Amino acid sequence: MGRPMAGRLLAAGVPLTVCSRSLDAGDDVVSAGARYARTPAELASDCDVVITMLPDTPDVTTVLLGDDGVATTAPAGALVIDMSTIAPDPTRSIAARLASQGITMLDAPVSGGETGAISGTLSIMVGGPDEAFSRALPLFELLGKNCVHVGASGAGQIAKACNQLIVAATIQAVAEAFNLASRAGADPAVVRNALAGGFADSRVLQVHGQRMLDRSFGPGFRARMHRKDAGIVLAAARQWGASVPAFGVVAAQLDRLVDEAGRGELDHSALLTLLESPAVPAASGSAGTEAAP
């Protein structure tokens, strides 16, 4: 996600310094004009706005607050924009720690996947101070088409948890519908066409439904990452006393897809494949969490 987002900023003429564990001084982003920094601290010393796009909460904590992290060199008045999907409470704690040094933080997770990152059509859900949102908006407009300031610090991550709940539950529903159609002797492709335009239609039915029909399960969005996000959803539901019974079943299916079936590197639309194995019963329960590499 970070690579195409960086590419869009460069193409718009934004002066850019980049740092990543999977990137070096010869990377194509650097070749396109970005300056290369060896550490987050080196990067932050050169920038007044720092954007992070990382797999999980521990990664963000380390990059921002670690021994060689952004907070060690970022000047007072700097803006940190975390566009990762992580837990809301740690987001608030990180924001408070940065604020004690005069650094403002926005949580701005995105939806739209790599395709949206490439095309600049991401949905961006933002939490944090009003003035920081206004400051960041010109950058957001280069990266996405739907940018909403949801509320105070952590509100963007809560919105993203809601997004991941709906997306996973809808993928599971489409998978179940296609499996039912197939077992009952109806062509799932024709059923999908019949549903298009009605109340059952959705972006998931269109995009992930086509993936299922094509058996095209290369990511996309990896199942192991959605399983991580499911853990965030379930933890948030427990914390705030919200009942999510339907999502609990879907989260357990993501557990099975990753742990039992070993398909964590496939797209989350591969949830369909669990339903196609009649010897494996449907699961219920709660999802685990993982610290993504």
Give a verbal description of the structure.
By secondary structure, the protein is mainly alpha-helical. It folds into two domains: 2-152, NAD(P)-binding Rossmann-like Domain (Rossmann fold), CATH 3.40.50; 158-275, N-(1-d-carboxylethyl)-l-norvaline Dehydrogenase, domain 2 (Orthogonal Bundle). The protein is 51% helix and 11% strand. The chain has helices spanning 2-11, 28-31, 40-44, 57-65, 88-99, 113-119, 130-143, 155-183, 188-195, 203-214, 223-239, 245-260, 271-275, and strands at residues 17-18, 35-36, 49-52, 79-82, 104-107, 110-111, 122-127, 144-151. The strands form three sheets. The chain has a three-stranded parallel beta sheet with strand order 3-4-5, with helices on both faces. Strands 6-7-8 form a three-stranded mixed beta sheet. It has a two-stranded parallel sheet with strand order 1-2. α7 links the parallel β7 and β8 (144-151). α4 packs parallel to α5 (88-99), α8 (155-183) crosses α11 (223-239) and α11 packs antiparallel against α12 (245-260). The protein is globular. Residues 279-293 have low confidence and may be disordered.
Quick rundown:
With 293 residues, the protein is mostly helical. The protein has helices at residues 2-11, 28-31, 40-44, 57-65, 88-99, 113-119, 130-143, 155-183, 188-195, 203-214, 223-239, 245-260, 271-275, and strands at residues 17-18, 35-36, 49-52, 79-82, 104-107, 110-111, 122-127, 144-151.
